[in-house]
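subagent[fold] <- orchestrator: predict structure for attached chain, return tokens only, no commentary.
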Amino acid sequence: MKRTRNYGFTLIELLVVIAIISILASILTPVYSRAQEKARQIDCGSNLRQLGMALMMYTQDYDGLYPIAYAFWTGTLNPPLPQVPNLKTCLDSYIRNDQIWWCRSWVGKYGYYAWRNPRGGNYDFIVPSPNTHPVIGDPTTGRVWSDASLTRPSEYPLLFCGSPWTLTLNAHSGISDEEFFQGGGLGTINILYADGHVKIQNLTVQRWNQLYMRPR
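subagent[fold] -> orchestrator:
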């Protein structure tokens, strides 16, 4: 009598296959995550470039003057400052797509309304203190700045992804903001310069402070 051979996997063979798949997954998952983050960085840079174009159109329409606007995160202060006018309300007629105001990495790490501003976005001005607005005009004083006041616009950082004042700065790095400001690693930040170009930068705290406190 002829026996029928069973061609199924043995338990050992199944365990070997599962082990191989687990090893491959552990190798490929970080690569896939880095590729996803790179795509989000590019998307964030595209958002900033579009904001830069909108700012340029605004200054052309208003005799070279920048908007008078509060930062998006003013509602987190104690006592809170007004939330409007802000950059989004000032540029409303130039940017109709709300998603341009949001970086996917930033939203994924901090949430849409981390700054308690339903009419806001996550891109912030580069200013040396929460109460000064050296280029974007200051609503508390009515002081307005012009693009002509910038002697080297290609070196002047204008907007960036996040805010140091609310510890929401490192959406594009693998470390927390607390670690970054304690010197625990490099931060990764997308920055829009006044001439319209965008650059992704890996920064130490010292380099960030040099950039943030750059003389106007």
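orchestrator: received. Logging for downstream: Strands lie at 123-125, 157-161, 187-193, 198-203. Residues 11-212 form one domain.
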